[in-house]
Amino acid sequence: MNKNIRQKFILSAALMIAATASAFAQGNGIAGINEATSMVSSYFDPGTKLIYAIGAVVGLIGGVKVYGKFSSGDPDTSKTAASWFGACIFLIVAATILRSFFL
């Protein structure tokens, strides 16, 4: 009988140590997640500015391309203008939505 009580005590002590160790391990995980969150959120301002700059360059290139087609009398000018305009609007809206979603 004494041996049975001793085994239960040792098993209970081992379980308590394991539970305590896992509780301490979770504290570092939360700190890591918080650090990753702050690191990712610090990249959003430069990333948003980069997307806006890409949108500006795409808009300028599209404007030159549409002007060239319009000057030459190409009947496909409106389709080209709509596609370039849509690409610029998509870049601006995508950057704004991503920023509002993640920050």
From TrEMBL:
Lineage: Bacteria, Pseudomonadati, Bacteroidota, Bacteroidia, Bacteroidales
Natural source organism: Phocaeicola vulgatus CL09T03C04
Signal peptide as annotated in the record: 1-25
Keywords, ordered alphabetically: Membrane, Signal, Transmembrane, Transmembrane helix
Listed transmembrane segments: 49-68, 80-102
Pfam families in the record: DUF4134
UniProt protein name: Uncharacterized protein
